[in-house]
Amino acid sequence: MAVTFLLGPGETASVIQAQAEDPGGQIFPLTVEYFGAVPNFSWLKQIIVKLPSEIANNSEIRISLKVRGTEENKVTVKLKP
Predict the structure, then answer these.
(1) Quick one: average pLDDT of 14-29?
(2) Is 38 exposed, middle or buried (0-12, 13-18, 19+ CB in 10 A)?
(3) Residues 6+ apart with CB under 8 A from 56
(4) What is the pLDDT of residue 56?
(5) Can you name the residues that pair with 18 across neighbouring β-strands?
(6) Which of 37, 65, 67, 69 has the smallest set of CB atoms within 10 Å of its CB?
(7) What's the CA gap between 38 and 45, in Å, rounded?
(8) For residue 12, is pLDDT > 90?
(9) Cβ contact 53:25 at 8 Å
(10) Cα 62 to Cα 21: distance, rounded to the nearest angstrom
């Protein structure tokens, strides 16, 4: 997922909201655990989210992000147990 934002001075990952949608359309809020630089690639940022156990049996989900209330594009993620 290409992220087109940066955190402003004093902002934390709390301005980022994430959610997953299963194939049946059920929405699951995701906890954003980290936003920051990828080790050894300071110009590249990553977001780490925690997936709930309720979606563990799905083969794929769609993840979307909202930053300061603006929704980014959704991305399909394939899951493997």
Answers:
(1) 92
(2) exposed
(3) 79, 81
(4) 81
(5) 30, 65
(6) 69
(7) 6
(8) no
(9) no
(10) 5
DSSP 8-state assignment for residue 55: G
Q: Which two tokens stand for residue 59?
A: 């083969």
Q: What confidence score (pLDDT) does residue 39 get?
A: 92
Question: What residues pair up with 78 in beta bridges, in sequence order?
Answer: 60
Two tokens, residue 10: 């004093």
Residue 65 burial (CB count, 10 A): 22
State both tokens at 20. Answer: 């997953």
Cα separation, 69 vs 77, in Å, equals 22
What distance lies between CA 72 and its chain's CA centroid?
Answer: 10
Question: What CA–CA distances, in Å, run from 69 to 15, 22, 75, 79, 81?
Answer: 8, 22, 18, 27, 32
Domain boundaries, the chain: 14-71
